[in-house]
Structure formats: C-alpha cells, structure tokens
Design brief:
The structure holds 2 protein chains of 2 kinds.
Chain A: E1 7-12, E2 15-20, H1 24-27, E3 31-34, H2 36-44, H3 51-61, H4 67-84
Antiparallel strand pairs in A: 1-2, 2-3
Helix pairs in contact in A: 3-4
Chain B: H1 4-8, E1 14-17, E2 34-38, E3 50-53, E4 59-61, E5 63-68, E6 71-75, E7 83-86, E8 91-100, E9 103-106, H2 110-121, H3 123-146
Antiparallel strand pairs in B: 1-2, 2-8, 3-4, 3-8, 5-6, 6-7, 8-9
Classes of the chains: A alpha+beta, B alpha+beta.
Chain lengths: 90, 147
C-alpha cells in the first residue's frame, strides 16, 4: 500500500499536518492532523510498503515499544487513512 | 471550501483550506495556495489577517490595517476600499500560515513581514495607478482606437 496523493507534512501551529499539494490538491482538499508516530507512518507510506514492514520500521525508531503496541498504532492509523480515501488499493 | 472552516474550528485548533477570490493577491493565489486558519486567542494585532463573516454573511479573509478600540479597519491586499465596523464578534479565526504551492510560509516568517511592509508602503502608488492613471490610460486608448 502507498499514499494515493502527493502530500507535504509540516509542523504548523504546534501540530503535524499533512496537506496534498500540486495536482493532488484538487483531489484531496482536506488536511490530516497527526501525532509523532502517525507522522512517521505517513512518511513511510510515501513509498510502497506493507503493514508488517511499517511495524518493523517503527520498531527501529521505538525499540522500547512492543510489536503489539506498534501493530495497533499501524492498524488504527492505516484504517483512518483508508477511511479518508488517501491510500492506494492493495 | 473556506465556508467549512467555521465548522472545522468548532472541534479543531486549526483548519486548512483553499479559497476563492483575488483580493489577497499577490500573496494568495486562488486554486494554487491554501490557508491555515487558527482559532483567535484574544484581540488581534495590526497586519493580522482575520477570517470573518461580513454583514452580507460572506466569509472574508483580509488584512487589518488599523486596530480601533471598538473593532478593526480591514482591507484586502489587492483592494482599494476599506471595510469598517469589523468587530471581534465577527471574527472566526486568523491566518497563521499559508501554503504557497507546496511551500509552507508561517506568518512570523521574515520574508512575509517584509511583504507586509511592501504592501502597506506601496499602497498610495498602487491606489493612484489603479484609480486614476490606469482608467485615464484606458480611456485615452479607447479614444485613439475610436478615431
């Protein structure tokens, strides 16, 4: 899976937000607010990846977290992105 | 688009949206740029850009050019008429930053502060050009063409 649109992520007014830019802005006019972990997942999703790979990449950044916790974070954020319609179909 | 901001700000601290119109040119370009609007945290300052609801119920995003005890004097960067009687009660949020294309520009940015002074200081010249010189040249052109 991968992000469907071209996003930029910035820290704005104390929040990490992602906004679609260029031609993508016409297709996705909203914005996404996210926490630090979600922002990392979002960055990884700019390239083709799987949920399993996301958990492994997060484990490198957060070695103290259990895989179950990281899997839960990935599952819930990916579900949120799917609901928002910003992920390419598998 | 910008109409949704009022709704979004009921639950979020910021809202990001496109907009319609040319009144904030050359800073904000319709269809290309997006605005980041934050909830207001009290009285606004000179040169802030509030989003407010006008007397005819339209959403307007223009710059404060004078802070008065009872409200604000406001004008779009690309306009030559002022808006009077805008009070804190009319204000929905304030411009915090904007995306110019894919580049995020914060309203505390030094380049942005310079832009504000350019817009303010060049106003008399732009006003003269737009309201007097340009129409005269236009009518002169029409006269020459008519001959």
């Amino acid at each position: 899976m991968k992000l469907k649109y071209n996003f930029v992520t910035n820290f704005v007014a104390g929040k990490t937000v992602a906004v679609a830019v260029g031609e993508s802005a016409e297709k996705f006019s909203g914005f996404m607010k996210m926490n630090t972990t979600a922002a990392k997942i979002f960055e990884f999703l700019k390239e083709e990846t799987s949920k399993e790979e996301l958990v492994l990449k997060l484990k490198e950044i957060y070695p103290d977290e259990t895989e179950a916790t990281l899997k839960e974070s990935v599952d819930s954020f990916v579900a949120e992105l799917q609901k928002a319609g910003v992920l390419c179909d598998d | 688009m910008i109409n949704n901001i009022e709704e979004v700000l009921k639950t979020e601290d910021i809202a990001i949206s496109g907009f319609e119109g040319t009144s904030m040119l050359p800073m904000l370009r319709q269809g290309k740029d997006r605005v980041v609007i934050a909830k207001c945290g009290g009285k606004l300052k000179l040169h802030d850009v509030p989003l407010y609801k006008s007397s005819d119920n339209k959403y307007v995003l223009h710059r404060i050019i004078k802070v008065k005890p009872d409200g604000y004097l406001i004008r779009g960067d690309h306009l030559y008429n002022n808006e009077y009687n805008v009070t804190d009660n009319d204000i929905i949020g304030v411009l915090k930053a904007f995306y110019r294309g894919d580049k995020l520009i914060d309203c505390t940015n030094k380049g942005y502060r310079l832009y504000i002074w350019y817009i303010r200081l060049s106003y008399p010249l732009r006003y003269l050009w737009s309201e007097f010189v340009k129409p005269k040249l236009w009518s002169l052109k029409q006269k020459i063409r008519g001959k």
